[in-house]
Specification:
Blueprint lengths: L3 E5 L5 E4 L2 E2 L9 E5 L4 E5 L5 E5 L5 E7 L6 H10 L3 E6 L3 E10 L4 E4 L4 E9 L3 E4 L4
Antiparallel strand pairs: 1-4, 2-3, 2-8, 4-7, 5-6, 7-11, 8-9, 9-11, 9-12, 10-11
């Protein structure tokens, strides 16, 4: 279950996939970053004693809803077909979400609607990191 998620409009973030800037987004497209687990899980027993467990699972996903007619879409299909781990980076005005190796673990999901076709491309990362964006 994905517990922490940030969803952005594509013009709010800078996206790089496999070292290449990705800007081929259309109307209604979204960019989402999500962790699979919280860093810490707090529990309380029947006597009211609290404890915290630190989770060492820092995995997560990058999800891009994009137009399959985009110029970079063919490159994403190649990545999905050969399961190559590639760096993925999403930078907003407050955080830099990134991983050194993420994979598209299944073929892309396609939705055909009245306005335009859309595909969801999901990259899974075993280590999803976030750093604050600082301005000098």
């Amino acid at each position: 279950m994905q517990l922490t998620q940030h969803t952005f409009d594509p013009w709010e973030v800078a996206v790089q996939i496999d070292g290449l800037p990705f800007t081929d987004f259309g109307t209604g497209d979204k960019v989402a970053v999500a962790w699979n687990n919280d860093n810490v899980t707090d529990t309380v027993d029947n006597n009211g004693n609290g404890k915290s467990a630190i989770n060492h699972d820092h995995s997560g996903t990058f999800t891009f809803s994009i137009d399959p007619n985009a110029a970079n879409y063919a490159h994403l299909i190649d990545l999905a077909n050969n399961l190559t781990g590639v760096p993925v980076s999403v930078t907003s005005n407050f955080a830099h979400f990134h991983t050194d190796s993420a994979r598209i673990t299944r073929p892309v999901d396609t939705t055909l609607n009245a306005e335009y076709p859309s595909v969801s491309v999901v990259f899974k990362a075993s280590v999803l990191q976030v750093d604050p964006v600082t301005t000098a």
